[in-house]
Q: What sequence folds into this?
């Protein structure tokens, strides 16, 4: 595929994008700004890609699925764990709009820098604040959040400190399982729903997986 519009068409045809809101966000945020320079030819293909430091930018279909389930409203305050390339942060920024706020944390300082540069190139995510550090226990300083999205695999979610950082009517989506394979879990109002089998890199840290 040669353009963001073509990628969006494919995600619509596959049923990954289901709402006008998410469609508009994907059209607004060109993935070309977030893939490594040497991989630009594949920017609009629906697969994950290495971004350095053993990490990956997720496949667009999985990102679309998570954002549809998360249902980010205008003005929402959102926490993302695992900034990576900054692509998802840019999409969240568009969905939450100028009155919203995105807080995104990554444990690899170089990736926080990379994401900051990518967002600068993209130029429109003024409502996103990026932090570097172990976000595995969440980011209490800015809690509570309307929405929380985790883009690295977690060992557990029930009883996890993240749940306490969510507003009573908030929603959270996270890959939960082993270091290699997880299921996306959607949490809201005390209920956990299993959605899609996925493969994310592990969330490493105090409330995640131990460093090997
Ligand atoms: N959302 C990203 C992809 C994330 S890949 C994007 O749109 O490109 C998973 C990321 O989780 C990696 O960048 C990795 O460094 C980060 N990560 C792993 N453990 C973490 C932790 N404890 N706190 C914050 N980020 C973590």
A:
């Amino acid at each position: 595929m040669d353009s963001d519009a073509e990628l969006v068409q494919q995600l619509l045809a596959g049923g990954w994008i289901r709402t006008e809101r998410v469609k508009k966000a994907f059209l607004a945020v060109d993935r070309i700004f977030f893939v490594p320079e040497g991989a630009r030819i594949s920017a609009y293909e629906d697969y994950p890609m290495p971004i350095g430091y053993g990490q990956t930018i997720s496949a667009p279909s999985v990102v679309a699925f998570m954002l549809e389930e998360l249902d980010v409203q205008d003005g929402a305050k959102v926490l993302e764990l695992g900034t990576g390339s900054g692509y998802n942060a840019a999409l969240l920024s568009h969905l939450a709009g100028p009155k919203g706020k995105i807080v995104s944390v990554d444990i690899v300082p170089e990736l926080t820098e990379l994401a900051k540069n990518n967002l600068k190139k993209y130029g429109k995510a003024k409502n996103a604040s990026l932090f570097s550090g172990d976000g595995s226990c969440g980011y209490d300083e800015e809690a509570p959040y309307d929405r929380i999205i985790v883009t690295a695999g977690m060992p557990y979610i029930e009883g996890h400190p993240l749940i306490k950082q969510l507003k009573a009517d908030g929603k959270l989506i996270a890959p939960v399982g082993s270091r290699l394979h997880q299921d996306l879990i959607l949490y809201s109002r005390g209920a956990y729903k299993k959605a899609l089998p996925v493969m994310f890199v592990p969330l490493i840290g105090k409330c995640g997986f131990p460093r090997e």
Remarks:
- Residues 55-58, 81-82, 84-85, 87-88, 105-108, 111, 134-136, 151-152, 201, 203-205, 208 surround S-adenosyl-L-homocysteine (CB under 6 Å).
- Residues 141 and 170 are 17 Å apart (CA to CA).
- The longest strand covers residues 166-177.
- The domain at 4-198 is CATH 3.40.50.150 (Rossmann fold).
